[in-house]
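Re-run requested by the PI after the first attempt was lost when the workstation crashed. Everything re-entered from the original request form. Ligand of interest: 5-aminoimidazole ribonucleotide.
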Amino acid sequence: MNESTDSNQTSLKHADKVLVGILTGSPNDLPTVVKVRDTLTELGIASEIVVASAHRTPDKVLAYLDRAHREGVQVLIGCAGVAAHLAGVIAGHTRLPVIGLPLSGGVMSGLDALLSTVQMPPGVPVATVAVDGAKNAAMLAARILALKFPEINAALEAAAKKERARYDQTADEALEKFKVQNSK
Ligand code: AIR
């Protein structure tokens, strides 16, 4: 199911084809995980979110991967907290690029999830972003896709320009507020 039907989706030609599969270990992860989808949507990239746990519902993870391979998903993102093995399990069952998004929560505030996600054995890579780094998980997926889809490359360029303008304006406003002379 494609859950990226938000109205701000752009008119890129592949916008209705799911290119990114986002798996997450618990429905409780969704407040962070939807930010991955939202960033992808802003870039005109269709994605789908599947709640499936490497430990609680491993059969569901494998069933989704089966479907994702058949349907031409290009990048997979595994999100989980605590003993976060989801991205690693995904990477063991696919040749597609896998991004790991460790989530905070639990007694170690995400450090447990970070190490569980990033410390993969040689030969089975998971490109791990920061704890709760939802935006970067999406941006990394977009950069991978941009190698193949010029319109995603263009969307990334446009987003970078917009971000630069926003940053410069925020800096100018802060400098003005604190009466700091900006060095040219
Ligand atoms: N989780 C679920 N199955 C395996 C793991 N590692 C993670 C979820 C969630 C955390 O365990 O991704 O971040 C706690 O899950 P819950 O459902 O108890 O809130």
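Saved to the shared folder this time. The domain at 20-182 is CATH 3.40.50.1970 (Rossmann fold).
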